[in-house]
């Protein structure tokens, strides 16, 4: 199995493309919002983004993978002016293994969240 990541031309914390080859399985993780320990969504977009990634990581570990197996994410942001906070958190979480990524501006999200993130991962056999 091989995952080839093609760096973003802009130098962003995402890959322009991610190519996957070889035997394995795909994991599609539902959109996650930044629920905290109290079961509510609070905090800055940066804090909520990290909690979203925590929840994505938990789902992937449960499926036998890791956050570094993520090949694509879509982030839904209530305020696109907050994109830099999202991008900073994404770079911190993915480091040298950035997924392909899209950010979409939306008018609102469930639970008054400011960000929701879904993911696609590839787990090698």
UniProtKB/TrEMBL annotation:
Reading the lineage from the top rank, the first entry is Bacteria
Gene3D superfamilies named among the record's database cross-references: RutC-like
Q: Which residues cross the membrane?
A: none
InterPro entries, per database record: RutC-like_sf, YjgF/YER057c/UK114
PANTHER family annotated for this entry?
2-IMINOBUTANOATE/2-IMINOPROPANOATE DEAMINASE RIDA, 2-IMINOBUTANOATE_2-IMINOPROPANOATE DEAMINASE
- What is this protein's record name? RidA family protein
UniProt organism field: Mycolicibacterium komossense
